[in-house]
Amino acid sequence: xxxxxxxxxxxxxxxxxxxxxxxxxxxxxxxxxxxxxxxxxxxxxxxxxxxxxxxxxxxxxxxxxxxxxxxxxxxxxxxxxxxxxxxxxxxxxxxxxxxxxxxxxxxxxxxxxxxxxxxxxxxxxxxxxxxxxxxxxxxxxxxxxxxxxxxxxxxxxxxxxxxxxxxxxxxxxxxxxxxxxxxx
Length: 184
Known about the structure:
The protein is α+β, with helices and mostly antiparallel strands. Helices cover 16% and strands 42% of the residues. The chain has an eight-stranded antiparallel β-barrel. Strand 7 (160-169) and strand 8 form a beta hairpin.
């Protein structure tokens, strides 16, 4: 029975891991354990199974401002009668000015950024595809009692990015939203 090179490599790694588990060799003492090595893999199969590393896309910095306001929560009539929390929100907390800084690749890839201001210090992580991005917004300090979490969505409009930020408090009693425009 013949075994594939990848199976032999897996077996060799398992044997090696088992041999080195929890044991250390004092300095200057040579271990008597045998080291198992896998047979070399032919070059043709190595290139076929190893994907090429993608090029890192150059990033550009985009900045903008926003003014957060109480978010619109649409409920059915029955739910609105049962859930009064949003109608009781006086709309004074977590409302006001803020800034957004995003690092965007040219046309596709990971989006990173920061939001500061009335909504607290937030981190942005998402993905850009062609002319729009979608990102998750998380608090920089998840233990902050006023931490907000949500989404950020933007679309390319000529030389700028425009979109909507929507976040809620950890118990979802406060819902906030803001339109934004980013430029370089």
